[in-house]
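stuck on this fold:
=====
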Amino acid sequence: MGEAKHRKAEDPLYGTFPKNGLTQERCVLISAPITITDSSISTSGRLDPQELRYSLLFWDRLAISSNNLIQIDPGPEADFLKKAGILEEVKIQMKRLGPGNFQDIHIPAFEYLEQQEPGKWSLATGEKSFQWLGMPAGEAPNVSFDLIHAIPVPDQDVALEDILEFKSRRVDERKRLLAEIDRLAALVKSSENPGAQLDRQKAIIEECCVDLLKVAKEWKFPVRLADLKCSYEFSLPVSLGVYAFGDIAVGMPFVGALVSSAVSGLKITADIKRQPIRDRSSAYQYVYSFHDHLF
């Protein structure tokens, strides 16, 4: 067997998956807390400080959207990050605001960023950012990978300068985690027998979380335990059997031991796609969740 065939047998992604996981620039569109329903829109104003610190830790550049009809002051921390060249503002022109087009406040900004830099930008959503209740489901399938009780993030009162200083020193640990989650998604998507690859890649992702938790002990500020949900656009393979329409949940005991949690783990879930995008190897959407656990 030639070297290439041998590598392909060992690694289904050999020659196909990007090798630049650690050097790839990753960017995310964030939002002040805003909830959209079929008939209303509500917002609490400025960027949520906890969500902002999560985004700042893991992503290289951030963006917010603004429009000509609703003025939302993102706050002084947003001004600081703009001056630092980390946060940009995407301005959307709207002709009207009413039931049926509330989503035009935010979604077009993501589409614009994706068009300008394909594959680099993702959308942050959730209770403390952009939340579109009742968003119509798309025809294409969606798969999400959830890391539960596994991610250390700076608490909401930590100075942004401290986070930036840490990012400049410890690039590999924070970037490797997202790169390995992308790799897991690619393995599940492309492998004829993805079940055989799950344990190996889960162990690598758990190692990434353990490394982050160990590095977090260097921080001279409070650290909060968090979850991360990453959404990708593809179907779970039929070879995963009943899991193609349900959940796969695997524990991460080494992470659990570090954070004193019996529920730390990785969950893979099949779902309906929400946001239409073009083909890409990275997640198109992230959702953050936070726990009371400080360490």
Summary: The mean pLDDT is 80. Residues 195-216 form the longest helix (22 residues). The chain has two domains: 3-23+137-294, 27-132.
